[in-house]
Amino acid sequence: MRSCTLKTTINFEGNALSRLATLEYKKVFIIADPYTVSSGLIKAATKHLEASKIEYTVYSDVVPDPSIEKVVSGVTALVKEMAPCLIAVGGGSAIDLAKSVRLFAHRMYPDYAPYFIAVPTTSGTGSEVTSFAVITDSQKNVKHALIDEFLLPNEAILDVEMVKSVPASIAADTGMDVMAHALEAYVSTEADYFSDMYAEKATSLCKHYLVRSYNYPKTHENKAREKMHVASCLAGVAFNAVSLGICHSIAHQLGAQFHIPHGRANAIVLPNVILYNSELTPTTFVLSDPAPCVSKYANMSRRIGLIGYDDIACVKSLTFFIRSMQIEMGMPIRVRDAIPKVSYEEYESKLDAMADAALLDRCTPTNPRVPTKADIIEILREIW
Ligand SMILES: NC(=O)c1ccc[n+]([C@@H]2O[C@H](COP(=O)([O-])OP(=O)(O)OC[C@H]3O[C@@H](n4cnc5c(N)ncnc54)[C@H](O)[C@@H]3O)[C@@H](O)[C@H]2O)c1
Ligand SMILES: [Zn+2]
User: Fold this and answer.
1) How far apart, in whole angstroms, are the C-alpha atoms of residue 88 and residue 344?
2) Which residue has the higher pLDDT, 14 or 62?
3) Phi and psi at residue 171, in whole multiples of 5°?
4) What domains can you pick out in the chain, each with its CATH number?
5) What's the gap in Å between 108 CA and the centre of ligand 1?
6) pLDDT of 49 strictly over 80
C-alpha cells in the first residue's frame, strides 16, 4: 500500500500574508533572512501581527547554507522565549534554519512544539512544504539533509509581495532549482500518480514563466513572479513525497566544496544527469532497450511543448531547453565558469571525496539509475 498526504496548509494569491492577522497566538518568534530586515520587507508580514496586537521577536542571525553553529545559536534564542508560534521569513536558508532550530528545541524540551509557519521569500527550494532541512558542516565542507516529519511546516504563505525584490540572478538560480526538483521527482524510483501531477504542473509553469520571472526587474510582470512562487511549492510537494536523485547529490557537493549557489549547481548538473539516467550520449540515435525514465523524460518534454520525432529526440530536446534557459538568464553552464578562481587541478583533487559523499547523499537511493563512484566522477569531469 502507498499513501499520499499533504499536511501543510498553503495560503496563496491575493493578500495571503493577511492570514497572520488571524493567528490565535499572542507571541511569535520570527526567524528572518537579514535582507528582509535591512530592506524593511519583513514589515509586509509584521504589520499584520501589529494590527492584531500579537507580540513578536525577530531573530535574523541567518546566513546562506546555515551551519550547525547557527542552529545551536538559534535554539538558544528560541528556547529563551518559548514562543508558541514560530514564523520563518526568508529563502531556503532561513526556512531550513528555522526548521532545524524548532526540531532541536523540541528534542531538548519534548513538550515544546511551536506552531510553525513558513513564508518563503525566494521561489526555489519548496522548503515551506517539505520535511527536509539542509544544514552545512562548515568544518568538513559537507551538507547534511535532516529528514523528519517534525520539520514540516503547519502552514505556508505564498505572497508575491515577498519575492518582487529577488534580483534577476537569484530568480534564475532558485528557478532552476524548481526545474531540478520537478524533473528529479518525476523520474524518482518512488514516483507515483500524485507526485507526477505536481511535477508536471511545476515544470510547465517553469517552461512558461521562469525566464519571464528572471526578467521581472525590467518588466515588472507580477504574474511571472507569482507563477514561479507556486511552481516552487508544487515541486516541493512532489519531491517531498518521492525524493530526488543524483543531480541534487552532486549539486550538494558543488555547494559544500565550492559554494556554488544551490540552484546554479543543479542547473549545471541537470542535463548531464538526464543523459546519464537515459543512457544517452550526444551521438546516440537509437536505444534497443531504453530505460523506463526515457519515456518519462520524453513525456515531460512533450507536455511542456517541446518537440522531437521520437523519445530520444524529446529527451535531448529537454536537455537543450535547460541549457538555452541558462544561457538566456546569463547563468554559467559549466563548473569552471561558476568558479573562475578555482583551477582544474584543485577541482580534480576533490573529485574522489565529492563522489564518495554524493553516493552517500540521501537523494541518491531514488535515482532511476544506480550510479557507481566512477559514474559520478565521470559526470563531475564532464561538467567541469
Ligand atoms: N529544505 C528543503 O527542502 C530544501 C530544498 C532545496 C534546497 N534547500 C537549501 O536551501 C538553501 C538555498 O535556499 P535559496 O535558494 O532560497 O537561497 P537563500 O535562502 O540562501 O537566499 C539566497 C540569497 O537571496 C537573498 N534573498 C532572499 N529573499 C530575498 C528577497 N525577497 N529579495 C532579495 N534577496 C533575497 C538572501 O539574503 C540570500 O543572500 C540551500 O542551503 C539549499 O541546500 C533546502
Ligand atoms: Zn534543490
Assistant:
1) 39
2) 62
3) -65, -35
4) 9-165 (3.40.50.1970), 169-383 (1.20.1090.10)
5) 27
6) yes
What sign has the CA pseudo-torsion 289, 300, 6, 265? positive
273 band by pLDDT with thresholds 50, 70 and 90: very high
Q: Which protein residues touch ligand 1 with a CB less than 6 Å away? A: 33, 35, 64-65, 90-94, 96, 121-122, 124-127, 130, 132-134, 162-163, 165-166, 170, 174, 177, 262-263
Rounded CA-CA distance 125/251 in Å is: 13
**pTM attached to this predicted model:** 0.96
Cα–Cα distance between 219 and 5 in angstroms, integer? 38
Given a cut of 90, whether residue 280 has pLDDT beyond it is yes
pLDDT for 83 beyond 90: yes
From 43, 121, 232, 254, give the residue whose CB has the most ligand 1 atoms within 8 Å, as the site to mutate: 121
Residues 6+ apart with CB under 8 A from 41: 35, 121, 162, 165
Q: What gap in Å lies between CA 247 and CA 338, rounded to an integer? A: 16
State the Cα–Cα distance between residues 149 and 366, nearest whole angstrom.
19
Q: What's the grid cell of residue 106?
A: 523540541
Check residue 40 and give left, alpha or beta (phi > 0: left; psi -120 to 50: alpha): left
Q: How far apart are CA 211 and CA 310, in angstroms?
A: 27
Cell 516529519 locates to: 149
Which residue, judged by its Cα, is nearest atom 14 of ligand 1?
92
Q: Amino acid identity of 246?
A: I
Q: 268 CA to middle of ligand 2, Å?
A: 12
